[in-house]
Amino acid sequence: MSTQTGPPRPHTVLRDELRPAWSAAVRAEWTKLRTLPSTTWLLAGTVAVTVGTTAIIAAATHTSTGPDAARQDPTKLALTGIDLGQAIIAVLAVLTVCEEYGAGMIRITLTAMPRRTVVLAAKAVNLTGLTLIAGLVAVAGCLMTGRLMLPGAGLGTADGYPLVSLAHTATLRAAAGSVLYLILIALLVLGIATAIRDTAVSVGVVLALLYLPPLLAQAVSDPLRRHLEQIAPMTAGLAVQVTTSSPAQVIAPWAGLGILAMWAAGSLTTAGVLLRIRDA
Amino acid sequence: MRVTSSPARQPANRTRRPAHGAATAALRAEWVKFRTVRGWLIGLVLAGLLCVGFTFVVANGHHQGICTGAGNCTAGHPFVPNGPGGEAVADSYQYYTQPLIGDGTLTARIGSLTGVIYTGPANQAPSTAHTRAGLAGWAKVGILLTPSTRQGSAYAAICATGSHGIQFQHNYTRDQPGRSGTQTSSSPRWLRLTRTAETITGYDSDNGTTWRQIGTTRLAGLPATVDIGLFATSPVTYQDGATGAATQATATFNDLTFTGRTASGWTARSIGMSPRDYYPTLGAGSTHRSGANVTITGSGDIAPAVATLAGGSTASESLLFGIVVALVVVIVIATGFITGEYRRGLIRTTLAATPQRGVVLAAKALVIAAVAFTVGVVATALAIPLGHHALTTNGNYIFPTSTTTQVRVTVGAGLVLALTAVGALALGAILRRAAGAVTAGIIVYVLPNLLGPGVLGPGAPAATWLYRASPAAAFSVFGALPRSALVSYPFTLANGYYPIGSWAGLAVLAAYTAAALALATYLLHRRDA
User: Fold this and answer.
1) CB contact B438 to A (< 8 Å)
2) How far apart are CA A186 and CA A130, in angstroms?
3) Are the CB atoms for B253 and B230 separated by under 8 Å?
4) Strand partners, B196
5) How many angstroms away from the CA of B54 is the closest CA of chain A?
C-alpha cells in the first residue's frame, strides 16, 4: 500500500483507487479462507487422498508382461490419485463462497467491498494459491509413490518401462499439467458455487459434472462417446497426464487442458455476471 | 411442524410418551418438514426426469446393424429364435433326419467324436481355413427328436458331449446327465431315443445290449409325425481367451437302427447356419452315409442364448446411468434433510419436541426412504419402456425379459434409491455439515460405479470386487441378461454379468446403510445437538 504516498497524478487516480481495494480484497479473502477451520484439513486431505489413491492403485496393479499385453502409461497411472483428490479441492472451492452465503456473511463482504467482481477475483486468487501449493505437494507425492511402487507392479525398468522421472519431458508436462488441472478445477467450481450459492447443491452439481460424463461416455457408443470425452471437463483436462500414444486418447494433452480452461473461464464469467446482477 | 404435545409441559423424569404416539408425531413432523421445502420437491422431480431422460439418451446412442460388406450396413439384428418357454435360444445344428409316424425308436453307436477350433482373426467370419484340432466342452452329437425343424421349436435329445459326458436334454434349458467321460474304442457309447405317445425317453449303454434310462420328458402337444435323426453341433468356445472362437464337431455313428413307421427316407439338413442367424458357426455342415455308418459335421449350439453372442442388450442396461444421476440428486436432498437442521439450529427444536433421538432419525429415514423409493419406481417404470422403444427403433436386439425380472428391476431401482437416501441421511447426521456429507455420500455411493468400469476397466479383478463388496454391488438388481449352466460362457462383469446375485447385492448396499445409520444413531445420542 506504499502507492498512497506522493501527490496523486490525474492519470493514475483510477489505478491508485483500484489498487488498495484490490489488495484489501485479496487480504480480506485470505483471512477468511485461512481462518476457516476446514481449509487446512481439506488441503491436507487433498494431498493424502491423492497420494493414497495412487498408492492403492499402484499396489493393486499387476501388469502381465506378455508380448501382447497392452502398453501401460506409468506416469498416468502414478497420477491417478488426482481423479479422487480433485473432489476435495472442489469441496474447498465450494466452501470458499457458499459458507458466506450460508452464514449471511456475504452481505457484509459486499457492503465492505461493493466492487463484486473484485471480491470474486480475490477469492479466485487465494484459491489458486492454496490449490497450487496442495497440487504441487500432491503431484510430487504421486510421482514419488509411482517411482517407488510401480516397479513392483510389473512396470519397472526390467519390464521395459522407464522409471517415473521429471527428467522425462512428457512426465514433466503431465506433472505440471496436473497441478494446472487442479487449479482450473478449483476455478471452475468457484464459478459454479458462486452461481448456485448453496453448499449441498453446489457439491452435488460439481461432483456430478466431474464424474458423471466419463460414466455416460462408457454407456454410449462412438461418435457420441468421443465427443463427450473431448468436451467433459475431467476427461478433457486429464488428457494432459497421458505420456504414451494410445488410440484411446481422444484429445491432445494441452488442447484438453485448454478445454478445461474454457470451462473455468466460462464458469467464472457467468459467476461474475450473476454476482453483479443478483441481490446477495 | 406439528407435535401432539410439548415435552416442556410434562415432568422432566416422565418425558417419554407412549412410543408409538411419539413415533407417529415425529413421522408426521418430518413429512411436513420435507414437503414444505420446495427445492427438495423440485429436486425429486428433477431426479426422476434426469433418470428417464438419460435412459433415453443412452438407449438412443445404441445402434445395431447388419453389415453385408465393408460399410454396407443396415439397421437391424440377426435372427435370434425364442424357445418354447419364451426365452432366447441358440438353435443351430446339422441334422440327418427322417419322419417318424407314431411311436418308435432310433439307436446308434458313437464311433468317434472329433472337432476343430477356429484360430483366425476374431474380426473375420470364421472359416475352416484357420483351425486347430480341439473339441468344445459342450459340443453335442447324438439323437434328436423334434416336431418341427423350425428354430426354437420343442425337442428332446440324447447326446454325447465334448467334456460333459452323456446328456439327455430337452427344450433348451433342461438337462439330465448320464454316463460321464468320453467314448473310446475300449469304452464305446450307444445312444437310444424312444417315443411313446408324447413321452420321449433317452437311454445310454456301453455294450449295446444293457440299457440305462438317462431321462424322460413329456412334450405336450406332440403331433403324430415328428422328425427323428442324428445331429451334431459345436458351440463357441472360450478355451483360448475372452474372445470366443467358433468350433466344429464331427461324429461318426455306427449301427444305426430305426424301428417304427416312416413316410419317406433320410434327408440331411443344416438348421440355423445361414448368415441371417446370430449364432456364429464354423464352416458348412455336412452328412455322409455308407450303409449303417453316418458321419455328421456340424457347428452351432442348441442351448439358451447368452449376452454378447446375440449382440443385444436389455433396456435395464440403458437405465444404469440415469439411476446414477438420480442417486446424486437424492444424496444432495437426503443430506440436506438433516444438515439443514444443523445449519439453522432447527435440530434443537426438533430434539426438544421429540427427545427420543433415535425416533427422530428413524422418522427422517422413513420419510426420505419413502420418497426416494417412489421416485425410483416411477422413474424406472417410465424409463424402461422408453429405453426399450429407443433400442428397438435403432435395430437393437433386446433379450426377452420375464415379468418377474421387470418387476425386480423396477422395485430394485426404488430400493437402491431408498437405501442410498437413508445412507446419505445417516452421513448427514454423522458429519452435520452439507459439504462433507454430500462429498462423502457421493464418494461412498456413486464413485464405485465410476471406478468400476471407468478407471479400473471392466476386466480388472478390482472392478469385480467393487461390484461384490462396495455399494455398487446393488446394481446387480438391474442385471437382466440370461445365464445358463448349459453354456460355457464367461459370465463376467466385462460381458455384462454382475458377480453377485440381485438380492445379495442389495443386501450389501443395505449393510453399508445400516452401518452408517447405526453410527449416526450412536453419535446423535452421544453428542450435544
Assistant:
1) yes
2) 10
3) yes
4) B199
5) 9
Residue A173 pLDDT more than 60? Answer: yes
Chain A residues with CB-CB distance to B435 below 8 A:
38, 91, 94-95, 98, 199-200, 203
Sequence-distant (≥ 6) Cβ neighbours of residue B344 within 8 angstroms: none
Q: Is A52 near chain B, with CB under 8 Å? A: no
Count of domains forming chain A: 1
Alpha-carbon distance B472 to nearest alpha carbon in chain A (angstroms): 13
pLDDT in tens, A210-254: 988 988 887 787 788 889 889 999 999 999 988 887 767 788 889
Look over chain B and give the mean of its residue pLDDT values, rounded to a whole number.
86
Tell me the CA distances in angstroms from B341 to B30, B345, B350, B366, B370, one per residue in order. 11, 6, 9, 17, 20
% of residues, chain B, pLDDT over 70: 91
CA-based R_g, chain A, Å = 21
Q: What is the pLDDT of residues B204-249, one digit of tens each?
A: 988 888 999 999 999 988 999 999 999 999 999 888 777 788 899 9
Q: Which residue of A has its CA nearest to B465?
A: A60
B144 phi and psi angles, rounded to 5 deg:
-130, 140
Given an 8 Å threshold on Cβ–Cβ distance, is B321 in contact with A212?
A: yes
| pLDDT > 80? residue A161 | no
Mean pLDDT of A1-7: 49
User: How far out from the chain centre does Cα B186 lie?
Assistant: 43
Task: Return the closest-CA partner of residue B413 out of B522, B271, B315, B309.
Answer: B315
Q: What's the grid cell of residue A84? A: 479422487
Query: How many Å apart are CA B238 and CA B408, to the nearest integer?
Result: 31
In the structure grid, which three cell numbers stand for residue A235, read together?
476427461
- Return d(Cα A217, Cα B109) in angstroms, integer: 55
**Could you tell me the residue range of the domain that residue A111 belongs to?**
14-277
State which amino acid sits at residue B328. V
Say yes or no for a CB contact (<8 Å) between A212 and B57.
no
**Residues A98, B438: C-beta atoms closer than 8 Å:** no
Query: Which of the four pLDDT bands, split at 50, 70 and 90, describes residue B452?
Result: low
Chain A residue with minimum CA distance to B458 = A218
> Does residue A2 fall inside a structural domain?
no
Q: B331 and A204: CB-CB below 8 Å? A: yes
C-alpha closest to that of B498 among B470, B479, B485: B479
Specify the amino acid at residue A235. T
Does a structural domain hold residue A7? no
Q: Which residues of B touch A83 (CB under 8 A)?
A: 455
User: In this structure, how many other beta carbons lie within 10 angstroms of the beta carbon of residue B114?
Assistant: 15
Q: Round the average pLDDT of chain A to a whole number and report it.
A: 84
Query: Is there a contact between B449 and A94 if contact means CB atoms under 8 Å apart?
Result: no
Chain A residues whose beta carbon lies within 8 Å of the beta carbon of residue B39: 201
Summarize pLDDT for B31-86 with one digit per residue, the tens. Answer: 999 999 988 999 999 999 999 999 998 888 877 777 666 666 777 788 888 989 88
Spatial contact of B110 and B189, defined as CB atoms under 8 Å apart: yes
**Which residues neighbour A262 within 8 Å (Cβ) at sequence distance 6 or greater?**
none
Is the ipTM higher than 0.85? The answer is no
Question: Closest Cα of chain A to B454: distance in Å?
Answer: 7
- What whole-number distance in Å separates Cα of residue A257 and Cα of residue A234? 9
